[in-house]
Protein: DUF6296 family protein
Organism: Kitasatospora herbaricolor
Amino acid sequence: MTDTPDRWLITFPGPQGCHAQQETAVVQRHDSLGPRGHRLYVSEGGVQVEIAEGGIAYLVSAGGRPAPDTPVHAQPLR
């Protein structure tokens, strides 16, 4: 894997047609891999996400939130 950041800002999509502020979570690199074989990142609130090369995020656990129908957005924090 190429040089990837230790922390990412994950943004959850809001309901369709809604202009409310979107929920976010900061996830930190974990020592294990997720179900797709990519590095696993975890937040203090229980959000778990795999992040592949290129910043493609796969949600593993939404940390008690309803799982969104669309992908989450991952922004690297350097």
Remarks:
- The CA atoms of residues 26 and 34 lie 17 Å apart.
